[in-house]
Specification:
Layout: E1 2-8, H1 12-23, E2 28-32, H2 37-40, H3 56-69, E3 73-76, E4 79-84, E5 89-93, E6 98-106, E7 110-111, E8 128-129, H4 132-135, E9 144-148, H5 150-160, E10 167-171, H6 179-187, E11 191-193, E12 197-203, E13 206-212, E14 217-219, E15 222-226, E16 231-232, H7 235-239, E17 264-266, H8 277-299
Helix pairs in contact: 1-3, 1-8, 5-6
């Protein structure tokens, strides 16, 4: 069976596209491994309609039910390969299962490079954050610890100085730091510690600070993660011959969200844009509208 559209990625962009395409009565399959960025965020605070926050998991569950009510199908699969065929596209999952579609939407997203401290996971989106545009407001006038590495961590600390004057940057990996950034941090009175973190101190979802290798404890009310080297999940795009930037984000048409390869679309964090839930939703809808138009043209 060939679907009208295969959506690879069941995060926010993929789900919004699935809902829109389902409303157009197209045959749609969403392939998702349930290991995306939205699956681990405990709360988003900057989304219209959710002033008290909403977790990524809740949005995903609501979105999946909504899409399923419109006839959209789901498969828990990690897609490893994608190729063009005479009728469209075929993807292969790591289970060996193959799926065919006339159109393909890549909503594969980005995954942050998170340090291996299990105590952090319940805190993500509640008291520990990764995106200053999403959650800088949450640290307003609070003592905040940036857990990071080298220039990525220093730049995050400098960005966050807009929100609070009480900042500590702990360079866990002790990566080299540009002298200019060091000087800028000094000018902003940002404390700099170059020492590995032994343990994250947290009480459930409440971040309290860290214990360093030396045994010294650094306390804080909020945390930010900035290690750099986030994984842009655009390997499938590369396999299909899609244009990517040097940072591996996918280039799309500003209006249609189609890539340079005909009938291959991309939406959400894998594309080149501000990484925001609300933008991912909009891109998912926009891509779906133009996928629908292309399917209509094929029928006429």
């Amino acid at each position: 069976m060939a679907y009208d559209c295969l959506i690879v990625g069941g995060g926010i962009a993929g789900l919004q596209a699935a809902i829109q395409l389902g409303r157009y009565k197209h045959k749609v399959l969403v392939l998702d491994a349930n290991d995306g960025r939205s699956a681990i965020c405990r709360s988003y605070h900057n989304i219209l309609g959710y002033p008290d926050g909403v977790s990524g998991q809740e949005l995903r569950e609501i979105g999946k039910k909504h899409a399923e009510s419109l006839g959209v199908k789901f498969a828990v699969e990690k897609v490893k390969q994608a190729q063009k065929t005479s009728v469209g596209f075929e993807v292969t999952a790591d289970t060996g299962n193959k799926y065919k579609g006339k159109r393909i939407l890549l909503a594969t997203g980005v995954m942050d490079r998170l340090p291996p401290f299990p105590e952090l996971m319940p805190c993500l989106g509640i008291s520990v954050y990764v995106c200053p545009d999403c959650d800088g407001y949450e640290i307003k006038d609070k003592r905040t610890i940036v857990l990071g590495s080298g220039n990525a961590g220093a730049n995050m600390a400098l960005t966050l100085s807009y929100w609070t004057n009480d900042l500590v940057f702990i360079s866990h990996e002790k990566a080299p730091l540009d002298e200019k950034l060091m000087e800028e941090m000094k000018n902003k009175d940002i404390e700099y510690i170059e020492e590995a973190i032994q343990k994250v101190l947290a009480d459930g979802d409440a971040f309290n600070g860290v214990r360093l290798e030396s045994g010294k404890e650094i306390t804080g009310d909020r945390g930010f993660i900035a290690f750099g080297g986030n994984e842009v999940k655009s390997d499938l795009a590369k396999q299909l011959g899609v244009e990517r930037l040097e940072n591996k984000h996918v280039v799309t048409d500003a209006r249609t969200k189609m890539t340079n390869v005909k009938n291959v679309w991309a939406a959400g964090d894998v594309a080149a844009h501000s990484e925001q839930v609300t933008i991912a939703m909009g891109e998912g809808s926009q891509a779906a509208i133009w996928i629908h138009k292309s399917l209509l043209q094929e029928k006429n």
